[in-house]
Structure formats: C-alpha cells, structure tokens
Write a structure and sequence with these properties.
Elements lengths: L4 H13 L3 E2 L5 H16 L8 H22 L3 E2 L2
Antiparallel strand pairs: 1-2
Helix pairs in contact: 2-3
C-alpha cells in the first residue's frame, strides 16, 4: 500500500509544529517558503510498499532526515 502524499504532508507539518526553527537573517514568511519547498522535496522520497512496518518506519526516518537537512541547508537551525 502506498502512503498518500497528504498523510506525509500532515506528518511533516506535525513534525514542524513540535520543532522551532531559527534563522539569523530570515523572517516568518521566508520560513514558510523554505518549509514548503523542503516538504515537497521530502515527499519525493521513493516508497517501498513491501517494506511493511519496518519499511514505513525507515521511510519516515528518511523523510524526516531529508526535510531537516533541507532546512539546515537553507540556514535554519533547530532550537533546543
């Protein structure tokens, strides 16, 4: 079974809600632009429908990693 893109988007949105991102030179509007682009990039991760639960967990970790690396590549840092 293939994970619907809306489900990935919601999961990433919820992930973003629990994380505060800071940037020294960008404002909230620029955050949402970067966030949107990084969500789109992360959603493009290929999915192995035969991976079962472990495949879904691995994909989730991969999507999260791609999203976070994308945001960090744009100069954002996660607040601790």
């Amino acid at each position: 079974m293939r994970t619907p893109l809306w489900l990935v988007a919601v999961a990433l949105l919820l992930l973003g809600c629990g994380t505060t991102w800071n940037h020294t030179a960008k404002d909230e509007t620029e955050f949402y632009a970067d966030d949107s682009e990084c969500v789109s990039r992360a959603e493009g991760v290929p999915y192995n429908p035969y991976g079962g639960t472990s495949g879904a967990l691995m994909r989730r970790a991969q999507v999260t990693n791609i999203y976070e690396r994308c945001m960090m590549g744009r100069g954002w840092t996660k607040a601790r």
